[in-house]
Design a protein that fits this description.
This protein has 257 residues and is α+β, with helices and mostly antiparallel strands. It has helices at 46-56, 79-104, 132-138, 146-250; strands spanning 2-8, 13-19, 26-30, 59-64, 75-77, 126-128.
Length: 257
Amino acid sequence: MKAVPKVNVDGLYIEDVITDDTFTGVVPFYADTPATGPDLSPEIDAEEAEEQAEEEWEPAGYIVGAPVPAGLYLPRFDLAGWQSYQDAIAAANDDYQAAYADWSSQPEDERGEPPVYSAPAQPELWSEGLTPQEIKALHPPKEPTELELLKEEVADLRLQNNQQQEAIDNAATGLEQVKSESEEQQQTIGTLGMEQIKQDLSTLDLKQQNGVIGAELVKKDISILDMYMQNQVLGQMLAALELKLLAKGTGGEANVQ
């Protein structure tokens, strides 16, 4: 004996039922006998009564010989796919029988190899009967425990602390950069100040040199003036001597002061 799935008319799994080990295929099962039997009034003949009884005994579902694969929440069996598979098997069998009959009708020395039956591949007939939303609804999120809430709070605090530490590190880096720029500016100002002092000293030195040169020019001017006066005195002396010489040449004396 073995357990096989039982499905409703839509192919949705209901439960397992126990069957013989040799059971395969798909067979219908029916609901309990209707509470009211077929209408047997004189106006209804026997054939109509039989058809009415058959209509009352529609399948309530099916017992399926194909096992349900693991991992499905609500297995659904493809009844239409199964019927199509059975039709394909029947068509393949008919083709084989026709080919075999044609092969058998030929003389033995002309038959060659007999035809081989090729069964169609069985499709995947089981699928998930629930939508993703319905599956998700089967697993609602668990309420966090006190320990989990505490862990989450600690994780949030650590994250905030890390963010604050990162902000502090960034501020410290910015402060170091500002300090470095300030020191560079101080060095630049100091350099410019030294250059300015050098320029001022150079200007002062030039002024001093200019004063010395001016004094030298004054001295030169005085020397030139003195030489000019000396030259005038020498000129006057030279003129007096020339007059004396002239007087001696003429035999008289000039009245030279």
